[in-house]
């Protein structure tokens, strides 16, 4: 049996490796010159850079952890406790915000607690803005939840649905809130994903390279056509395969798949997403892993500190290195460090080292999302030998371990 996988990201490579272990003849097509997709790492003048956000690994699924650590042994990872902060009105507040209210000014904390106690009554809203207020109360939303989400989505929150949030955002109950106020110690307020692993050397690319080892991969190769002839799939009018697994963004897939019905094409065209620029920069050393910036006074919404993930982030020992993110269209980064609306000056933006733009960053779960995906999934479920996989193939927001688990489940169900 021959299978072609479109895209050499986490999902595509894990599926390729799992199929190869079952004896399938697998070929992976990747348009970029290097593999990894959104989980790539590169070095710029000795500085480690995860250009699509720092991809860390943790998992509640033992089968995923075992598989990953068999590829890259656990002694090659750094085990780290998450130390995320929120920069609010010149202060560093521990994350998550709703369980760190004791760090606010007294009156602000009182407002947040008061509104939270009055929340979660009545019918649960179906749009994302009202859903946030219903779950967290008006004050928590005014201080943090709404401005931060407005920045990261750059899309009207009232036009987003909420089902995608199930299981993704831990929702505190009122006992959690009281307990957090009494503890007054952020190290004790544990949360999901409070610990994680990151490779000691080579960035997350170390795992990617281990996945890719021994796999037949055509890099720098764009798939321009996909067609079904008899019982085979034809890639680029020449290569024949029994199976196709596509991790390509659905709006891109619609342009290469032959004979796609107009209704399916329209649904794939209607899918919403946003784009992202990350900028690697030199900064003072810090033990903060991620910093969230809700204020609309600054263009960046989040900073990931590479130097807090690995001691090998910089060629100079003890030097701080971070990467901040800005949602939106591609722009010129020249002189960015001289602009006062990019980052708070307290962060110490010393020098730009590198930058990267990605067209497809986050899936936007607008109010047409489920209708469009129902149409799309119904169509592809009827295509023999064709599977969708990954964040962009299934148009969903998945962590790295979920992508691997989905690959495992897909390969298990395939008749190979």
Automatic annotation (TrEMBL):
Coiled coil start-end: none
UniProt GO molecular function: flavin adenine dinucleotide binding; oxidoreductase activity; UDP-galactopyranose mutase activity
A GO CC term assigned to this protein in UniProt: cytosol
Superkingdom assignment: Bacteria
Residue ranges of domain Amine oxidase in the record: 192-286
InterPro entries in the record: Amino_oxidase, FAD/NAD-bd_sf
SUPFAM superfamilies for the chain: FAD/NAD(P)-binding domain
Name of this chain's protein: FAD-dependent oxidoreductase
């Amino acid at each position: 049996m021959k299978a072609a996988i479109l895209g050499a990201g986490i999902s595509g490579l894990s599926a390729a490796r799992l199929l190869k272990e079952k004896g399938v003849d697998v070929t992976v097509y990747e348009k970029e010159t290097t593999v990894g997709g959104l989980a790539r790492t590169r070095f710029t003048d000795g500085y480690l850079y995860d250009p699509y956000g720092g991809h860390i690994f943790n998992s509640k699924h033992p089968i995923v952890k075992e598989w990953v650590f068999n590829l890259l042994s656990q002694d090659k990872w750094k085990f780290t406790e998450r130390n995320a902060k929120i920069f609010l009105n010149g202060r560093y507040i521990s994350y998550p915000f709703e369980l760190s209210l004791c760090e606010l000014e007294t009156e602000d904390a009182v407002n947040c607690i008061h509104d939270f106690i009055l929340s979660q009554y009545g019918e649960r809203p179906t749009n994302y803005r009202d859903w946030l207020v219903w779950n967290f109360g008006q004050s928590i939303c005014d201080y943090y939840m709404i401005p931060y989400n407005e920045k990261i989505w750059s899309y009207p929150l009232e036009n987003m649905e909420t089902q995608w949030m199930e299981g993704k955002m831990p929702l505190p109950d009122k006992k959690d809130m009281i307990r957090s106020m009494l503890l007054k110690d952020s190290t004790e307020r544990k949360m999901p994903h409070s610990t994680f692993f990151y490779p000691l050397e080579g960035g997350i690319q170390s795992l990617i390279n281990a996945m890719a080892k021994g796999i037949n991969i055509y890099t720098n190769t764009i798939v321009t056509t996909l067609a079904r002839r008899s019982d085979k799939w034809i890639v680029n009018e020449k290569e024949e395969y029994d199976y196709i697994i596509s991790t390509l963004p659905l709006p891109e897939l619609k342009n290469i798949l032959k004979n796609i019905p107009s209704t399916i094409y329209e649904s794939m065209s209607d899918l919403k997403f946003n784009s992202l620029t990350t900028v690697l920069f030199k900064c003072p050393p810090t033990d903060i892993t991620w910093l969230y910036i809700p204020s609309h006074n600054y263009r960046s919404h989040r900073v990931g500190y590479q130097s807090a993930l690995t001691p090998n982030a910089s060629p100079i020992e003890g030097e701080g290195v971070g990467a901040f993110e800005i949602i939106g269209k591609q722009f010129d980064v020249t002189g960015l460090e001289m602009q006062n609306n990019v980052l708070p000056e307290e962060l110490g933006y010393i020098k730009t080292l590198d930058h990267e733009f990605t067209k497809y960053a986050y899936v936007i779960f607008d109010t047409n999302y489920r209708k469009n995906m129902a149409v799309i999934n119904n169509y592809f479920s009827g295509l023999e030998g064709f599977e969708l996989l990954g964040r962009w193939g299934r148009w969903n927001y998945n962590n790295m371990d979920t992508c691997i688990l989905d690959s495992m489940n897909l390969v298990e169900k395939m008749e190979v």
